[in-house]
Specification:
Number of strands: 4
Order of helices and strands: HHHEEEEHH
Shape: extended
Oligomer: single chain
Number of helices: 5
Strand content: 5-15%
Structural class: alpha+beta
Radius of gyration: 21 Å
Helix content: 40-55%
């Protein structure tokens, strides 16, 4: 069996088939092991990382900022004369602004403004469609393996 790899978003300037083989050759695959392998500048993985430490540090801080904003939740809302409402929903959602750039809007403010509300709901629908597609593809692979259509090696 031959496996052909590709990039989901096409942001890496490295050969995905070489990357797939390099990662498969790592005994225990985890981020630390991948970075260690990528430190060797003769590997294809090396091309996927920023090796300028000042740029890498700034990019990591941006990654941390995205993680902060995506993990912040509204746990409950309390209003006078009503029982607290338990929610556990994202406090902010990522939307594309009019310039087609990503920005975050507070969910409680975003739902009040119809254009933002539509963008929020479109984003949720897109996530649902992606999850449905992923589930279908995983079921296809499971069926292929269980039906012995493919011998993995």
């Amino acid at each position: 069996m031959k496996i052909i790899y590709g990039w989901r978003n096409g942001i890496f300037a490295a050969d995905p088939n070489k990357i797939g083989k390099e990662i498969k050759g790592i005994e225990i695959i985890n981020p630390e092991a991948i970075v260690k392998k990528a430190e060797d500048n003769t590997t294809e993985l090396h091309k996927c990382f920023e090796w300028d430490n000042s740029k890498a540090a700034h990019n990591y801080r941006k990654h941390q900022a995205r993680k902060i904003i995506s993990d912040l939740e509204i746990v409950e809302i309390r209003t006078p004369k009503k029982e607290p409402k338990i929610l556990n929903i994202s406090a902010y959602e990522s939307i594309k602004n009019d310039d087609k750039k990503r920005e975050y809007v507070n969910i409680l403010e975003g739902i009040k403004y119809e254009p933002d509300r539509e963008k929020i709901m479109d984003g949720i629908k897109t996530l649902l469609a992606q999850a449905t597609y992923k589930l279908e593809k995983y079921n296809e692979v499971i069926n292929m393996i269980l039906d012995k259509w493919v011998e993995l090696g």
